[in-house]
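W.,

You were right to be curious about this one. When I first looked at the sequence I had no strong expectations either way, so I just let the prediction run and decided to look at it fresh. Below is the sequence, 338 residues in total, followed by the output.
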Amino acid sequence: METKDILIQKSLGAWKPNVYLSNLCMAYYEEPTYAHRRVFPACQVDLPSGHFYEFNKADLARDNVQQKPPYGTVAPAVFGLNEQSYSCKVYQVLIGLDKIMTLPYQRANAPGSADPYRARVKNINEQISLHQEIDFAKNFFKKGVWANQWTGAATADAANKKFKKFDNTDVDPADFFDARAIEIRRNGRHRPNKLALGIETFAALKNNPFIKERIKYSGTTQNPAIVSESVLAQVFGVDEVIALDATYNAAAHGANENMQYVCDSKGALLLYAPETPAIDEASAGYIFQWRLDGGNYIAVETHDGAPGTHAEIVEGVIAYDMKKTADCLAVYLADCVG
């Protein structure tokens, strides 16, 4: 356009040099990698707190069948019943929306990325997912949580639960994980089916020479063998390997950003957990969810701001409890790499 054409367009109100692009914006939303729901099943509950039964494992695993004596009966078998509890806490996030600042977008009919309501709802879902991932790390994926814990060291010492770190070139991780799986199967009566890996542990296992040796003949010239999550799952004999690579800013508001991995990047958790909750089904852990509005997992509402603020508040609310339910069904590995 020439200058005279621009002046004509301006006089007609059609030239808007400061309108934002409606088909492009930038936001550092996390890739869909939040793992807490992949590791432990979510159990829907009708009440915010309550109890659930646990049949005594020792009684269930004991051979209680005896030979019947003539003219008599054997003693009744005893099956003990324990009790566990849960308590869902309510978590909330509020995001403000300035009605005056949204007027230009509404009047310009700007679609997509410029929609302020859409952006706030997406922010709320992102914030709640991040908070849950951080809670998952605090409740399940750190030192001192699980009774069965091993620690990486320069040399192995099984008596003190120390293993040689996986980034050593003379360590075969498959043998180590087989031994841990045998322990869990013996003590918990289930073979572990999931392996959650800190991102540095995942990288070390991908580059471990013993792992590469096991899969080197599985590729072709066009499709060379690559160590992925699914390949590691086959090597370790589990249904799923989950790389924990979610990140967050550990700095307070106003301070320089401090980007960190949510879960311990050098840790690993081998466990058994069913895909969905079920009666009479054991699990190393559960996520108890209380649906506040009776339908949606996350309740999102919009409220008017204080008088004179010309603002609206978009609210996100969630209620849940992350709980370890069976120590015998998991082993945590700390300091897997140097």
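Here's what jumped out at me. The first strand starts at residue 42 and ends at 45. And, maybe more interesting for your project: Residues 116-139 form the longest helix (24 residues).

Coffee later to discuss?

I.
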